[in-house]
Design goal:
This protein is mostly beta strands and 957 residues long. It has a 22-stranded antiparallel beta barrel. A 5-stranded mixed beta sheet has the order 8-13-14-11-12. A 4-stranded antiparallel beta sheet has the order 3-2-5-6, with no helix packed on it. Helix 6 packs across helix 7. The termini are far apart.
């Protein structure tokens, strides 16, 4: 009997040992039976797991009866019951909310659906094959509802770098990372009439889509984790790391629209994009270096139909006849004017007699301002369309190149990594047409006026180098990231009207640059034995920034007298036209930067952070983060974030977060200064000087010194998944309060009494002044929703559907933060004018819904997407002119055919049904005499119309 019990006991312990400790191993392959390295293999409902090596192999300790979860970016998650010691898995392409992400958590195995905050994961490699868009801003605009970006028009440098935002907040309130490292901002600050006016964003279009593996969009404040700028959220761009695989895409397309070619129909806006990527293995431990780049070219397009305003006056008619007779029209005498007036056939005899009997120049001026536009058009054989602007997309030609490298140094996981990129783009856009009857047009050079052009040269360079590995049980990552953005202006088909005959027709107008260098030390450790897992992270950061403005050539910024002397004193009169109107100085469309604008400013900051994430139980997860940051130019700040997730069931989670945040005013906002030509609501030009915040002009007007923006935000949401139905759902609401928000003020004018402010404006060749100021407090609230479903009918037939929506509202709250000086002067409404309120609250859609369907049927793939854009409002200071533009739905469709294993052909359309925003109605007074049949101040999705494209994709392994 005793031996019998011993036998039973031995079997029990053998079974117990078998249940507690089994080595489970296997290999993970893709659909082409190629090994997949880096796949996360986790034991469900635990914090234990591993990842596959370069050959797809994995091994871990688990129990029979548990479930393994296999996740990898670009593939659907797989769950496999452990019923044997060897488990081999084949992953199927797709995107899943179960993917491990790098942003939002420093836990190396945290997934999207298990996170405490909302995160979107976008498979860019999949998008580059199916979607019509080829640049990153427009891809995100159509696929991520909380993201907004549109091509701008007639807005100087902003024509060439599109401002972008999250949740309707500012372009400078979203932080961009690459491979988890801070990306530098653009050198351009938006000061013209667009959404995001007064802000500095990140130039996402400097990054080729071919270099991107996926994009992680964290839709929650994260300043306590990542530092300044992360008030609205974080966009993390993860670069490609494939090896021994060549991807090559060629996309060409154009607008086939009823309103193409100045609304006459046809084809315009032709584009070509050529992109490629290739990676090679380094060493025998899974190292790699991946290269990617692209070249693109796009033509401009124009949606202006016809100029409806005045063009010629009677003096223009006379000087045209004089020029044809060989006279020097730069300085016609009164007798010559009277003589050539007799040659204008459509002048009545009475009018010719009045001119001939005029006693002096003043009398002639009174007579010759007469509008003779139609008669003179007929006489010169011209049409009104010859005086159109270019309202639409700027022309662009550019190339981008990125490299991403990882080199394991030992068998313990120590790794040297680096990534670098460069881009060069040249853009061409046009401003307002300078008409012959304006003092801005020197008719001896441009007898019929001219359309000045802005030619941009944008360079972007970056490199990051780091090493990461284990020291004892701690993960350590030390890195340095450097980046620089340069923007140069070259103005052509223009003149400095005050230089008159001596003026060149092209100018180097100068430019600006921004440099950022960030050094990071990040340390973390995961404790399996504390509760059900605790991740501790801390680190430090040093950041150096430099902002420079470079002057242009002298003629691009100076104003000259009639005798050709530079205007340097208020008593000097600038050159004037026949009617005595002063001729503005500087190159027309964009006056250059002067030596007075030229500067080089720098600052540094140091930061330290602590991050704690604890799984208290299988159901309850909580995180805490705090960050201290000190700036050399405005002081220090301390911020916190607390977030949690609670599992109501295995498939339903609720989550929430509360945090404080900040954004340091950029060096651009602190020091940018220039004179620009700004056009008012009626299309009338004004020379507006932007003065730095510490300038004498700012002191005279009582503009306070800039300080940091501060924020408080909360979010609450839930995630749910129905595994049997392949359905996932996330819903998140949020509230963000921002104090002391930096805006670009309205235009302050001097009293015209030769005051100090009048003299400062005259020295800047300006008639008004604007500044950057902490003028307002705002509140933003909204709701984001994402539903993902995949139906697999058989091995060759599946349908993936995604429904994503955002509903948001931003508004100014409380009084305008004006100084006593401004209040006493009655200038509070200039400090934050009505059009600035509209740009903030209503100029971009606050509701956007995206429904995407991707059907795979054998060798065919059909991509169908409908995007609903909410209404927007015209941004103008005149209340009765604030037209509301209604909601629209834009449909994208593409059909792809996999001709061979390596070749895919795709054709399709963006805006299949040629939908346009509502037209600007004449009764609102915003058409500017035919210049703008669609708003240029309120953007939904642009005015390109239907875009048809074809793409060839080659993938060689």
């Amino acid at each position: 009997m005793k031996n019998y019990y011993l036998l039973i006991l031995s079997f029990f312990f053998c079974w117990l040992g078998h249940a507690q400790a089994q080595t489970i191993s296997g290999v993970v392959l893709d659909e082409n039976s190629e090994p997949l390295g880096g796949v996360t293999v986790a034991i469900k409902d635990t914090n234990r797991g591993t990842s596959t090596d370069f050959d797809g192999n994995y091994s871990l300790e688990a129990e029979l009866g548990q479930t393994l979860v296999f996740t990898f970016v670009g593939y659907d998650a797989r769950e496999v019951l452990i019923d044997q010691q060897e488990i081999n898995v084949t992953m199927v392409s797709g995107m899943s909310l179960g993917e491990v992400v790098l942003v939002g958590s420093r836990n190396p195995s945290r997934t999207v659906v298990e996170s405490t905050v909302p995160i979107d994961v976008l498979d860019v490699q999949e998008m580059t094959v199916a979607v019509p868009q080829v640049n990153l801003n427009q891809m995100l605009n159509y696929v991520a509802p909380s993201f907004t970006s549109n091509t701008q028009t007639i807005s100087d440098g902003t024509d060439h770098i599109d401002p972008a935002s999250l949740r309707g907040l500012g372009p400078d309130q979203v932080l961009v990372l690459i491979n988890g490292k801070r990306r530098h901002n653009s050198s351009l600050i938006n000061v013209n009439g667009t959404f995001g006016r007064g802000s500095v964003g990140t130039d996402l279009n400097a990054i080729p889509a071919s270099a991107i593996k996926r994009i992680e969009v964290l839709r929650d404040g994260a300043a306590a984790q990542y530092g300044s700028d992360a008030i609205a959220g974080v966009i993390n761009i993860v670069l490609v790391d494939r090896t021994n695989e060549l991807s090559f895409n060629v996309t060409t397309g154009a607008n086939f629209s009823k309103n193409a070619n100045e609304q006459t129909g046809g084809v315009d806006g032709e584009t070509v994009n050529v992109a490629a990527s290739y990676g090679i293995s380094l060493g025998e431990k899974g190292g790699y270096v991946a290269f990617a780049g692209d070249f693109d070219y796009r033509e401009d397009y124009n949606r202006m139909k016809e100029w409806e305003g005045t063009i010629f006056n009677a003096y223009n008619a006379i000087e045209f006849r004089a020029a044809n007779s060989g006279a020097n029209i730069a300085n016609l005498s009164d007798d010559q004017i009277k003589e050539f007036a007799q040659d204008v056939s459509y002048f009545s005899s009475d009018f010719q007699n009045d001119i001939g009997n005029a006693p002096d120049r003043e009398a002639l001026q009174d007579l010759l301002g007469l509008d003779v536009t139609q008669e003179e058009l007929n006489a010169r054989g011209l049409e009104r369309t010859d005086f159109n602007m270019r309202v639409g997309q700027s022309a662009l030609r550019g190339g981008r190149f990125f490299a991403n490298m990882s080199l394991p140094l030992d068998d313990a996981g120590t790794e040297l990594y680096s990534f670098a990129g460069m881009s060069s783009r040249r853009g061409n856009s046009a401003g307002f047409y300078r008409l012959p009857n304006q003092s801005r047009t020197y008719t001896p050079i441009y007898i019929n006026g001219f359309l000045p052009e802005i030619n941009s040269k944008i360079k972007d360079q970056s490199i990051a180098v780091g090493v990461r590995g284990k020291i004892s049980d701690w993960e350590v990552d030390f890195s340095n990231t450097w980046g620089k953005n340069e923007f140069q202006y070259f103005i052509s088909n223009t003149s400095n009207a005050s230089l008159q005959r001596a003026s060149p027709t092209a100018f180097d107008a100068g430019g600006f640059s921004f440099l950022q260098n960030t050094t990071n030390l990040d340390i973390s450790r995961f404790y399996e034995e504390v509760f059900l897992g605790m991740n501790v992270a801390f680190g430090a950061e040093h950041r150096f920034e430099n902002y420079e403005i470079e002057a242009g050539e002298r003629g691009s910024y100076e104003q000259y007298t009639q005798d050709g002397d530079v205007v340097i004193r208020a008593v000097q009169d600038p050159a004037f036209d026949f009617f005595g109107s002063a001729r503005p100085g500087g190159s027309q469309v964009f006056p250059g930067f002067s030596p007075k604008n030229e500067l080089s400013r720098e600052r540094s900051s140091i930061a330290g952070y602590f991050d704690l994430e604890v799984d208290f139980s299988e159901r309850f997860l909580a995180t805490f983060a705090t960050r201290f940051e000190d700036y050399s130019d405005f002081g220090s700040t301390l911020n916190f974030k607390l977030s949690s997730r609670y599992k109501l069931t295995d498939n339903i989670n609720i989550r929430g977060a509360a945090n404080t945040g900040f954004r340091a005013p950029s060096l651009h906002q602190l020091y940018f200064n220039s004179t620009s030509t700004i056009f008012d609501n009626e299309g009338n030009p004004q020379e507006v000087g932007t003065f730095s915040n510490d300038s004498r002009a700012a002191q005279l007007l009582g503009i306070p010194a800039l300080k940091e923006e501060t924020s408080k935000s909360i979010s609450l949401g839930f995630t749910a998944k129905i595994p049997d139905a392949n359905l996932s759902l996330t819903v998140d609401g949020y509230f963000v309060a921002i104090d002391d928000r930096v805006v670009y003020t309205g235009q302050f004018t001097g009293p015209g009494t030769d005051s100090e402010l009048d003299r400062l404006l005259a020295q800047a060749n300006a008639t008004a002044a604007s500044f950057f100021a902490n003028a307002i407090d705002t509140e933003s609230k909204g709701l984001d929703m994402v539903v993902t479903h995949k139906a697999i009918f058989n091995d060759n037939f599946s349908l993936k559907s995604d429904l994503a929506a955002t509903l948001s509202k931003t508004q100014k709250v409380g009084d305008i933060n004006a100084s006593d000086v401004l209040e006493r002067a009655g200038l509070v409404d200039t400090y934050f004018p009505e059009d600035s309120r509209v740009y903030l609250e209503e100029a971009v859609p606050r509701t956007k819904v995206n429904l995407t369907n991707s059907l795979t049927a054998g060798d065919f793939n059909v991509f169908l997407r409908n995007v609903y854009f909410g209404e927007v409002t015209e941004a103008t200071t005149i209340l009765e002119n604030q037209q509301v533009f209604g909601t629209k739905v834009v449909t994208d469709l593409s059909v792809g055919f996999q001709a061979t294993e390596s070749l895919t052909l795709t054709v399709g359309a963006n805006n299949l049904f040629d939908v346009y925003p509502d037209r600007a109605e004449p009764e609102f007074g915003n058409r500017s005499d035919g210049r703008f049949d669609w708003s240029r101040r309120a953007q939904q999705f642009g005015v390109a119309g239907r875009f048809l494209f074809a793409r060839v994709s080659i993938n060689l392994k």
